[in-house]
Amino acid sequence: MAPGLQRFTDIAGDGGPRLDAASGEELLRMDRAASVALGRRAPEPPGTLFVTTRRVIWLSETEKGQGYAVDFLAITLHAVSRDLEAYPSPCIYTQIDAEDGSDEEAGGSDFEANGDLQLAKVSEMRIILSDPGQLDALFDVFCHCAELNPDPNAVRNEENGWSGGENLAEGGWIHGDEDMIDGNDLEAHMFFTNLIGQNGVRDLGRSVRELQIDDQRFEDAEEEDEIQENGH
C-alpha cells in the first residue's frame, strides 16, 4: 500500500505541482478556492486542488510552496457527503490508509505532537469546494482515478480466486444524493445498499441482480411446496 497523507513541496515554476511525467502522471482536474480538512481539524484556508492520474494534491495559497498529497492507492474510500449534521459543509469525504493509532482511535491525542501535525496518522480528509455543485463532477474524477489505480492486493486475490468480502468497504466508494453517515458511523449495510464500485470487485451490479433473481426463485419454490402440501 502506498504511504498515506504526505507534505508536498515539489512546486513547478508555474506554481503548480511538478508531476511524474516519466511514469505517465497527468493532470485531470484543478479546483481553485478549495479547502481541505484533515481529521478533526478545522478546514485549511482555501488553496488549489489538483487531481492527477495518480494522486490528490492540495497547495496552500497562504503558505506558498506548501501543501499535501495522497496517492489514490492510499485512499480506501471516497464519497459525496451532504449531511450537514455530520459535517457543516458539503464535501468529498475520504478515508486514508494511516498508521496505527489514527486520530479517530486515539481521540486526537496522537494526531498532533508538540503542535506538529503527524500526517501519517491522518485517516480522514474532507475536500470542500467553493462551488458545492461541482462535487459530483469531482467525485466522478475520483472514481475514474480509483479505477486507474486498483489495489494490487485485491487484484492478486482475484487472480487466486479469492473475494475480499470482509473488506468490501475498503478501496470502494459511496455516492448518493441522499444524506450519508460518514466516519466511524458508517454502517456495514450502507456499503451493500449504496456501494457503487470498488477496486478489484467487478460486476457488482450483476451480482446483486443475480442474487435478487435467486431470492425470487426460492420464494416461488416455497409457494409451490405449500400448494402441493395443501393438495391444490
TrEMBL record:
Q: Where in the cell is it found?
A: Cytoplasm; Nucleus
Spans through the membrane: none
Q: What is its main location?
A: cytoplasm
Q: Name one GO cellular component term.
A: cytosol
Q: Which UniProt keywords apply?
A: Cytoplasm, Nucleus
In its UniProt record, which GO terms are filed under biological process?
A: cell volume homeostasis; chloride transport; mRNA cis splicing, via spliceosome; spliceosomal snRNP assembly
- Cross-referenced Pfam families: Voldacs (PF03517)
Do you know which PANTHER family this protein is assigned to?
A: CHLORIDE CONDUCTANCE REGULATORY PROTEIN ICLN, NUCLEOTIDE-SENSITIVE CHLORIDE CONDUCTANCE REGULATOR FAMILY PROTEIN, EXPRESSED
Family designation: Belongs to the pICln (TC 1.A.47) family.
Name of this chain's protein: Chloride conductance regulatory protein ICln
Organism classification, top ranks? Answer: Eukaryota, Viridiplantae, Streptophyta, Embryophyta, Tracheophyta
